[in-house]
Amino acid sequence: MEVVEINSLALAYLGDTIYENYVRKFLIHRGFAHVDQLQKHAVKYVSAKRQAYYVKKMIEMKFLSTEELDVVKRARNYKTTSHPKSCDIITYKYATGLEALIGYLDLKNKRDRVDQIMSFILEDSIC
Known about the structure:
The chain is mainly alpha-helical. The chain has six helices and no strands. It has helices at 8-29, 35-46, 48-60, 66-76, 89-107, 111-124. Helix 1 packs across helix 5 and helix 4 (66-76) packs across helix 5.
């Protein structure tokens, strides 16, 4: 099966774990060693609202290639009505788009690009 044929939500499922792993490593390297501190600061990056903010910023700044933008849009436009209570459906769909992009790039073995995207996100905010 080609990566482009994989269900967007499956890509997002994978991307979510990769994204969160980057954030956790970043915070530990920043000196946060206690789980309560890690959790408090991780929310600044892993909430759907923040993920939506970052992907919208990347779109606005034309940081994403056409291929990457297509992946985000495909995931964002995936038909679903469920979303967490903490955000609206549009925000959730943008966050899903970012996670799907991370999963897609990982499966395409474009880890350098994942590094660039995560650096863009992690360098944007100071904990």
